[in-house]
C-alpha cells in the first residue's frame, strides 16, 4: 500500500537554532505537523512536510508559556520553500499552490 503522502511535493523551512524560543517553535511545529521531519544541523534546524506546514500561535504560546506573535517567526527564518499561503495573527501556512 502506498502512503498517502507519496508523490506530494514537500514544503519546508530552515530556522536558526540560536534561542530557547526557536526551540519551542520547532517543538510546536512538530506537534502540529504529524508528517513533518526535523533535521538538526550545526546552528540550523531543517523542517520538511509533505504538501503543507503550519505554525500555530496557540501551540507556540503553550510551549513558551508566554504570548507569541506570528511576526516573531521572521526572526528565526533562514529560508523556506513552498508558498506562504497564509500569515495572520493565529497561524502561518506554507504550502504549494499548484
UniProtKB/TrEMBL annotation:
<dbReference type="InterPro" id="IPR003454">
    <property type="entry name" value="MOase_MmoB_DmpM"/>
</dbReference>
<dbReference type="Pfam" id="PF02406">
    <property type="entry name" value="MmoB_DmpM"/>
</dbReference>
<protein>
    <recommendedName>
        <fullName>Monooxygenase</fullName>
    </recommendedName>
</protein>
<comment type="similarity">
    <text>Belongs to the TmoD/XamoD family.</text>
</comment>
<dbReference type="InterPro" id="IPR036889">
    <property type="entry name" value="mOase_MmoB_DmpM_sf"/>
</dbReference>
